Structures are given as structure tokens and as C-alpha cells.
Amino acid sequence: MNETHASSPKAEPLSAAKAVAAGIDFTELQVGAHGLFWNEYRPADAACRIWHWHWHWHNNAATCLTPPGFSVRSRVYEYGGGAFCLTDTGIVFVNEADQQLYRQSLQGETPELLTSGECRYGDLQFANNQVLAVEEHRDRHRLVAIDLTDGVRHLLAEGADFYAAPTLSPDARRLAWIEWSKPDQPWTATRLMVAERQGDGRYANPRCVAGNSAQESLQQPRFDTDGRLFCLTDRGGFWQPWVESAVGLSPLPSAPADHGPAPWQLGGCTWLPLDGDTYLASWTDGGFGRLGLCGASSEDFTGDYSRFRHLAVDKQFIYCIAASPVSATAVIAIDRQTRQVKVLAGGIAPLPAEQISRPRTLRYPSGSGEAHGFFYPAMTGEAKPPLVVFIHGGPTSACYPMLDPRIQFWAQRGFAVADLNYRGSSGYGRAYRQALHLSWGDVDVEDACAVVDYLAKRGLIDRDKAFIRGGSAGGYTTLCALAFHKVFRAGASLYGVSDPVALGRATHKFEGDYLDWLIGDPVQDAERYAARTPLLHASNISVPVIFFQGELDAVVVPQQTRDMVTALQDNGVLVEAHYYADERHGFRKAGNQAHALEQEWLFYRRVMDQGGLSSGQSA
Questions:
Q1: Quick count: other Cβ atoms within 10 Å of Cβ 106?
Q2: Which neighbouring-strand residues pair with 466?
Q3: Is 432 helix (H, G, I), strand (E, B) or coil?
Q4: Is the pLDDT of residue 39 over 90?
Q5: What distance in Å separates the CA atoms of residue 445 and residue 456, rounded to the nearest whole number?
Q6: In degrees to the nearest 10, what's the CA dihedral of 604, 608, 614, 618?
Q7: Sheet-wide strand order for 101-105
Q8: 203 vs 613, which has greater pLDDT?
Q9: I need a surface site. Which of 37, 79, 342, 577 has the fewest CB within 10 A?
Q10: Is 59 exposed, middle or buried (0-12, 13-18, 19+ CB in 10 A)?
Q11: CA 532 → CA 440, 481, 538, 557, distances in Å?
Q12: What is the dihedral of CA 257, 83, 332, 49, to 10 degrees?
């Protein structure tokens, strides 16, 4: 493809670089005797660093604890999570480069190595001068405890394929955790386990509290101050809080809604049991997040925000990572008495509130069911603007009605955006999430196509100018939509799957059986795989496609993208491909993110300006 680009609009209030720079994110909020701590990611340097805020400081400013040369990020199960924990004197964290544990006081000195070897660690918890962790050694996983003083490692549990959320009771007598075995995933079937501490300090054989026979997904086990065990389970149709009882688990009063997301990452915290029968929780209502006290006491703390993650609480404040449709993601403290909200750290919205496109709830018919998502109107006043359909990855993940600078980038350039939670996404209950079983590449694609018809019939978009984009699993849905339907004018695949059989051969243990659940057994269901493999049906694609791929990607290897590009070129389809030598699965460097966003927009502009293109060249 030649490098002549269409001219940019005269007014460009939000550049790709500014949109990417606004994507500061926060994770793993924790509160302790020394203040509040969180992990902060900034696109400018692609590093994750621990920040510390103390309510006694007069300037109310947070300080960065992580020195140059370190980045706090776990790679257990490839998606990581739970990369640090608080100790009596400081923190212990996982360093991204070597995946080892380091301890650090709050005085700013160089972190000290606590472990060494080939193991990786995640889901860190501190108790009794030990760090509890999920340990990963190649394809073997265990629960371990590591002494903080000398680094001696103690085995806590092994034998299951996967572990998560080691949690110790306040009196240190009971250890609870979540485990699951292949071929299950943590959002399909898990077990809640408990082991009792014996007189010699070792733990007795564990017993299964829930999940041994029923197909239910359990997550986020918690002990309250009285030592009672709670967790979220979806046995009632949604991930809701239940408490251990004489009959196993009993439900707590709760909204008929998911109180947690699909646990792709370790260390999540979307609910906490408090005193008595009261708990703090976030949940979804029509796709929008809510925050409140539930149970014996009921108070709504939602305010102006629409998503809440990583909850923490003390006697005066509720802390969380929150976002709204018009404000950037932030660490906030909510006074439990006055309800006053204080922003402790946060990015700056890249646009004034009046220039921000706001999400409208989407609930529309698709096939034999219905699908969900959010619609963002274009901000240029065009009656029937072009549409970009966003397909999230996962695929058992979700999108949320919060300020996303990427979406605003498109809205400012005259595109409406449909951000989809197609069937199979989390946040709408177990049945909706399970709808993707053996149907990936079918129902998700159906939902992506149906939204165009739904919006066009309401006069909200120009159906002849609909585009589709997605990363990873979303890239697969995108390529299937282009191969099997004539709905979209062009599409973009960001490190997307074009050959699921090849993906299954190369993928890691955490997702090793996921494709069997999504499509079927690659041998017994070979015809189904062939029918849903975009690479085998590249001849059906007649519209332009742009690809973005990291050369270090170990999940969707670069050859998948190259094979798809070649197949389309051979068919005379306009193809543009960009490869990034320093990126893995999912782009982290600001310059690369901005380049990809800008090139995708220019690509769509050329497609619209030239009225449809046909070329076998590739950039």
C-alpha cells in the first residue's frame, strides 16, 4: 500500500498521543497501618509502580515507592495480578523483569531480593510474618508461604492444576483458597477449600467447602473479624456473597447481579465482609456499577461513578479505584459519615465534560436471545455518522461505561461507537456468560452484526459505514464477522486469532483447555473448527483489513497474523499490517499504542474517502 494518507480534519481536539497518555490505570488498592497503597501504570514509561498515601501528611500527596529499574507486575497464568502485599514494616512485591519477590521498607531504600530461581509468584497475601502466594514453576502450580525474615519456603497446597486467593483467618487457624482443575476455567467451575492449622504449625488435609460436585464458580474468599468464611459464588445465577454454614454455604441478602468480574487476573477485590452481617460491595445494574453497604445495613455510595474496583475500607473511609463516563480512573476515598469524596490520585480527563460522548445502555435482540453493550454518539453533529464496533478480548471479559480515551478519540472524529458485551461476556450472570459454550465465532459474531442493524433502524448510524475492531479474542470475532457476513466496510485486528487450532497448539496452561470449551475438541470437532477459522475462509473477505501485531507475542504468535495477511493479499484485498518489535500480547508502550490508533483511523478514512478499495499490497 502506498503511504499517501487522507488529510486530517481541521479540528483535532484529541490526538492519538493524548488519548493514550490519558490511559493511566490503577490496580491492587490496599490499606494498612501505614496508609493506603496502590499499583499505578503510566503509558509514558510502560512500568507499574507502587504509590503510598498517608492521611496524616499535611500536603495530602502520594509518593512513589518503586525506584527506577523496577516494575511491579506478576506474570502468573500470564495475566498476573496480586503483585504486592503490605507487611508490618513495608511491602513485598513481584518484580516484572525476573518475577521474583522483593521486600522493601517505607524509607525509600533499594528493594532486597527475597526469592530466587525460575518460579513466578502472584496473589500475594501477608500473614504471621509470611507471604502467602501462588507459585508457578513452568506448568506446575502450588500455594506456598515464604518467611519474611529468611526467605524459607513452605508448601501449603499442591495437586490441583490451579490456585488462587490464599486467605488466612484472623486467628491464623484456618487457611482458605480457591482451586480448580483442567479442563475447567475459573469462571466455569472452581472449589472453595479450607485447611486447619495443627499443633505443629502444619496444615491438615484440606476439605472442600463448596464446588466439589456442583458446576459453580467461586471467587474472592474472605474471613470476617469473627473468623466466619465468606465467598462469591454463582450457584444462584450471579456471583453473589454467601457465608459458610452448617449446610455448606448460605446466601446473604444481595442484588440479583454479578458482584465480581470474570477472574482473569489474581488479586481482585470487589467485596468485603464487615462487622455483623454487613458487607461492602460493588455490583452491576444494567451494566453500570454500583457501590454500597449491604446486608444488615444498607447504604448507597455510588455517587457519580459507574465502575468500582479494588475495594478497601477502614473506620472512616471507603477506598476504591473508580471511574465515571466523564472522569478519568482515580483512587478515591469516600467518608463513611459525610459521603464526601476525595480524589487521592487520578488521571486528568483529556476533554472538557461537555465534549465527552456519554454511554447509553444497549440492549438489543440478536439471534434467539439478546445482547448488551454501550452506545457512544459521535460528537460532530452528523445525523447518521459512521460506526466503529468495539469487540473486547477475553472473550469472557467485559467493557464498562467509563471514560475511555480511545472511544473519545473516535467520537471526536465523527464516529459513533458501539462497545459490546456480546453473549459470553461477564457482568450479566452465569447463563449469559455460559452462552459462549461451543459457540465462539458464532453468537459473538451474530451480536456484532446485529448491533449494526439495530442502530441503523433507529437512524443512529450509517449502516454502509460500519467498521469493526478487536484485540486478541476480539480480533477473532472481527475476522469471523468479516469472513462470514457482509455487514462491515472494513475491520482492524489487533494481535487477533485467525487460526484457533494453531492457537491451541501454542497457548499456555491457563488457557490450554479454553478452546475446547469455546469451540470443541480439535480432533472430534474438526469440522466445526474448520467452519470457524478465518484463515481457511480468507477468500470470503472482500473488504479492507488492517492488522497490528507484537513480534514478541507468545499467545497469538506473529506468524498467525502474517499468514492471514498473505492470504488476503493473494485474494487482492486491501491489507495494511504493522508489526512492533518490542511488544508482546497487548501493547504497553505509549508510542506504539498511539501509532496503532492513528493508523487505524487513517485507514478507515481512506476507505471512506475512496469509496471502497481493492489492492493486494501491504504496508
A1: 15
A2: 387
A3: helix
A4: yes
A5: 17
A6: -20
A7: 84-86, 90-94, 101-105, 112-113
A8: 203
A9: 342
A10: exposed
A11: 8, 10, 11, 19
A12: -150
Assigned C-alpha cell, 77: 497464568
Return the residue matching grid coordinates 525509600: 108
pTM for this predicted structure = 0.92
**351-609 falls under which CATH superfamily?**
Alpha/Beta hydrolase fold, catalytic domain (3.40.50.1820)
Selection from 485, 467, 488, 478 nearest residue 561 by Cα: 478
Residue corresponding to grid cell 494481535: 495
pLDDT at 244: 94
Distances (CA, A) of 587 to 316, 551, 597: 39, 11, 11
Q: Rounded mean pLDDT of the chain?
A: 92
**Conformational region of residue 138, where left means phi above 0, alpha means psi within -120 to 50, and beta covers everything else:** left
Grid coordinates belonging to 355: 465534549
Q: How far is 140 from 159, CA to CA, in rounded Å?
A: 9
| CB-count burial class (<10 Å; 0-12, 13-18, 19+) for 121 | buried
Task: Return the amino acid letter for 482.
Answer: L
Contact 229, 190 (CB under 8 A): no
Q: Where are the domains of the chain?
A: 351-609
Residue 13's pLDDT band (boundaries 50, 70, 90)?
low
> Cβ distance 463 to 452 under 8 Å?
yes
Question: Poorest-confidence range of 179-183, 411-415, 551-555?
Answer: 551-555
Query: What are the cell numbers at 487?
Result: 455487514
Spatial CB neighbours of 49, under 8 Å, sequence gap ≥ 6: 39, 40, 42, 64, 65, 66, 70, 71, 72
State the SS3 of 191-222.
EEEEEEECCCCCECCCEEEECCCCCCCEEEEE
